[in-house]
Amino acid sequence: MFRIEAAELWVVRLPLKFRFETSFGVQTEKLVPLLALRGEGIEGVAEGTMEFAPMYREETVAGALHLLREVFLPRVLGRTFANPEAVNDALGAFRGNRMARAMVEMAAWDLWARTLNVPLGTLLGGRKTSVEVGVSLGIQPDEAATVAVVRRHVEQGYRRIKLKIKPGWDVQPVRAVREAFSDIRLTVDANSAYTLADTGRLRALDAFDLTYIEQPLAWDDLVDHAELQRRLRTPLCLDESVASAQDARKALALGAGGVVNIKVARVGGHAEARRVHDVAQAFGAPVWCGGMLESGVGRAHNIHLSTLPNFALPGDTSSASRYWETDVIHEPLEAQGGLMPVPSGPGTGVTLNRDFLARVAELHEERRP
Ligand code: OSB
Ligand code: MG
């Protein structure tokens, strides 16, 4: 049992240390919404992964703030819950907006784990003390720059390199990287930039021994992915188009892919992420933990989720110091030799740097029943 007495909301804008170009745009900073839920002197914290503009999926920071203030938080503030699933149930009548609901659900998991004094991963059923990680590398100006940035991360020990691709920038960088590194685990992510009309181009990628091709087709599609999968040897990995365990079941039953990228917030929180993990396992499909350029709060949640057994491929949860000069938490989250240690304290095991937040937050407010 835990009680939710008050909530605190922040929005922070963090400059990214690198320019991150994907098929849908260029990012140089990150807008980070944070939610803390407090009860009986204990606090649970979560990060929103919706963005300023709906470029990846349909949720936005402004939309999430409205829903949290006016709709979701009033349903949980002042109440006592048996477990985080019960918090989820309190928001169960609402459709979509899974990233916004996930902020409440994930903060509740952290709060509950801290109440029980156990690490979040342990509470979720995970056993690992470190998790394998790779990196997601944005589109570079040319092939030489691509090979150079890959080399830097291979030397740092990352266990998988993922290259962002788009029409007109796909076979060339993949060929250049594969020629320079014959035996690395290599993948690509198109963020929905192709259609079935591009089958020829995508089929050319079969020559490079990619572990998977991530989300080549529309963000809300499963059927065309299944058709494409029949035409390709390389397994497809679904990201954008899996928003729930039911989506995962339908995708895998249709043959729309063989691998699932699980982003906790995209599917509505840890409970649903665990159900996606279980569905994929039942189909014999490996999963891995995706990233949304999270600050330390979201990153710590991702690391804990990745301790579940079917997270069989390296995730995008790379070192926080790659992204930020100063993080919103006190603890460093640094990979060594491609392994990210799981923070060992109760809950996520990380704590907010409130001094830093006080200096840089664009929004900070307290909500009560
Ligand atoms: O498709 O996985 C994606 C970042 C923003 C939006 C979508 C994606 C990504 C990433 C970044 O690939 C992964 C990371 O957090 O490093
Ligand atoms: Mg992706």
UniProtKB/TrEMBL annotation:
Task: Give the matching InterPro entries.
Answer: Enolase-like_C_sf, Enolase-like_N, Enolase_C-like, Mandelate_racemase_C, Mandelate_racemase_N_dom, OSBS/NAAAR
Domain (Mandelate racemase/muconate lactonizing enzyme C-terminal) ranges: 143-235
Catalytic activity, EC: 4.2.1.113
What name does UniProt use for this protein?
o-succinylbenzoate synthase
Keyword Metal-binding assigned: yes
Swiss-Prot/TrEMBL keywords = Lyase, Magnesium, Metal-binding
Instruction: List the Pfam families.
Output: MR_MLE_C, MR_MLE_N
Write down the required cofactor(s).
a divalent metal cation
Provide the GO MF annotations for this entry: metal ion binding; O-succinylbenzoate synthase activity; racemase and epimerase activity
The processes (GO biological process) annotated in the record are: menaquinone biosynthetic process
Name the gene: menC
